[in-house]
Input
Amino acid sequence: MKQTTDPIEARPLAPDFAPHPVFPDPPDLTIDGTFLTASWPDGATATFHALWLRENEVKPGSIDHVTRERESEIDTFPGETGLTDASIQNGATLEITFSPDAVIGRFDLGWLRSMAEGRWKVDHDIPVQEPWEAARMPEPPTFDGPSVMADDAALEAWLKACWTHGFARLRNLPVAPGTVQRVGERIGTVRSSNFGFLFTVETKPDPDSTAYTSVSLDGHTDLASRETQPGLQMLLCRENTATGGASTMADGFAVAEAMRREDPDAFEAIKTLPWVFTNRHRQTDYRFAGPIVETDATGRVVEIRNTGFLRAFPDMAAEDIPRAYHALRIFTEHCRSDRFLCRTRFSPGDLILFDNRRMLHGRDSFDPQSGIRRLEGCYLDRDEILSRLRVLARKHRTED
Output
């Protein structure tokens, strides 16, 4: 069935900026007290509450036409708001009569259809995350950097791979200072931290982090001592002539799921028992307490918090400490094992983007006397990659 899309500004009744296809076959409408149900001939259906409809109407006092943001709160409307009539006008507009005040409301039918298709959901247009072990992911998914910077289709493919697998690499980028910022801004807003807006990872004479030395780093998430860990991290190799220093990545979601299957008691401990993480620095003192594995209300693993060199006191009852250490040992051994570890060497012009709340990144030790290993990095929040993917998907619908 051919769908047509009008320009956003020609669709003043939709309270968002997404294009909404107009289906030639209108839905059947049923009113049941305070609910309206719309049922399309192809099987799509959705039920809308009267108050939800009324507060989402694009008109003065409800939704502003320019910003598409709400101007009112729910107590603006009668608490007993109901529906007395509903009809479709010109094939594209739903007209509703509200009770008790007989106010007429008008709504974009394509927008209501998008509700039936679930396009309002947080995960719509977002790929499913796929945990992996090293046998399936010996190298990061790799894309051409200049293409990603110039072409939205290439950008979308790179971001989808990163969200799906937790990391993705670009190659052939310039090594000039600031390149990593320009790539970050191709996605969204770069986030600052106590290490600055941008940071350079190299050996320093007076380091404020173990990352600025030449020793090996076990797999970790950055800044577990912060209330909100950076969601994404980006590292660009500007120079790498040193011997050693290969980068390592392990999928923390895969490690957690392996523990869930193979040692349920250890998994229960690592997702419930909190540790304090603290930033040990002369001028700052950041602290946060939380479990190493976080799950959501459905039990799905959604975040890893484990900066081993920032881990401080076990924030738990003394009798829980032995099983907390047992679970931590299993988690750490998995992250170090060939079963989960992807090991690659940076070349100049390589950039890796990864989910800092999922991936455990580290490095092998290197000899600072043999050459220079210099990376430039920045942080973004997860929101940025998700927002960009939704906007790119919206662009596809506009062009279809």
